[in-house]
Model the fold of this input.
Amino acid sequence: MRRYSVFAVAREAARYHTGWERAWASPEPKKRYDVIIIGAGGHGLATAYYLGKNFGITNVAVLEKGWLGGGNTGRNTTIIRSNYLQDPSAAIYEKARSLYETLSQDLNYNVMFSPRGVMMLAQTEHERRGYERTAHANALQGVETSFISPDRVKQLVPIINISGPRYPVLGALWQPRGGTARHDAVAWGYARACSAMGIDVIQQCEVTGIRQKGGKVAGVTTSRGDIACDKLGIVVAGHSGVLAQMAGFRLPIESVALQALVSEPIKPCIDVVVMANTVHGYMSQSDKGELVIGGGADGYNNYTQRGSFHHVEETVRALIETFPIISRLKMLRQWGGIVDMTGDRSPILSKTPLENCFINCGWGTGGFKAIPGSGWGFAELMARGASPLTEAFGLDRFREGRFIDESVAAGVAH
Ligand SMILES: Cc1cc2nc3c(=O)[nH]c(=O)nc-3n(C[C@H](O)[C@H](O)[C@H](O)COP(=O)(O)OP(=O)(O)OC[C@H]3O[C@@H](n4cnc5c(N)ncnc54)[C@H](O)[C@@H]3O)c2cc1C
Done:
């Protein structure tokens, strides 16, 4: 792989950009791999990357039924933060956030990480107490957050209405190094780095069956033939239940559609990410000037990547209450993704009842921010059989009642 650099840009400019090579290869599947990862979303690709980078395991295939990053990784609102309450969550999300800080350099690919600051508004007394508690917990966990006053909120985001009619702003949980990154670029950057290490990223290759022998995984059946492997990682977000069924076990997961929308582009008016959990909406402004707006999840299970109109209406209503100046903006487009929700709103990174088959799922409405940390920990789990980052997120926690309750930290979909 030829590195991207200022010299490469100058060289290509001089020869009319005729010399760029393809960012990643499109290989035919081999008959056998040491490791197969199902799903070329951010989590699957990051897992493959850290298997290669941290453990030297590069005889790896990432199999994707569509195009890479075409699942939730390319459909989210790109919020990155690590202000979670429980210690295991703070550890994995902060690992991810800290990896994001230097991900562009690490991958030699600009993922446009923008640590512009994330604030979660407290609009009820209950929420205020919850966020103050989280700020204290974060101080102990080494995550930089603070609880800020309504005046400071207004100073940071002048367009906010802090004395709203229903829910005045009582303060906010503020993470100054939270922010956003370009979601496609995260998938593309990992794919390019995987390809450079000799890892096969194979698109248009749907896994239709999981083959096993003597209680162990033996390989997969795909739309492009059978492929054998020693270890298998299932990393398919909203389709986790479908793949688990192929492997012969059940998951405590529900799949629902979550949607987002963007406005027409306008001049810069908000340079931080604001989440308003009580009225239920959140917003940031993209580099193109569009307001990126996220709403809630459907209240019923489904696999459609669309979303429903009443959510758009509810979300827009909530945001107009918080930011009255956006009331006359036109909305440009809306889309949905299928998110994988667990009961405690925490992910599953785990061994499974099928030997050498591992699963990484349950990131629900908030897994984009976790991609580097999840890939790091899941690769270690797959390579070594255990990882301090993933230890608390095993499947057995549902049987043993050891929930990692993040329903407050994940109170709004993001
Ligand atoms: C509207 C919306 C807004 C969001 N906002 C945020 C946010 O602001 N911040 C945040 O942190 N998170 C957010 N999220 C959540 C985040 O997008 C996801 O948690 C994360 O992208 C999951 O990544 P993944 O790699 O696990 O899954 P995906 O990116 O969905 O990748 C899974 C891949 O598996 C493939 N696959 C499925 N079945 C098969 C099969 N049988 N064979 C081969 N391949 C298969 C799929 O095609 C897909 O490409 C949001 C999600 C949505 C939908």
Notes: The chain is about 30% helix and 25% strand. The chain has two domains: 28-109+182-252+344-400, 118-179+255-342. The longest strand covers residues 331-342.
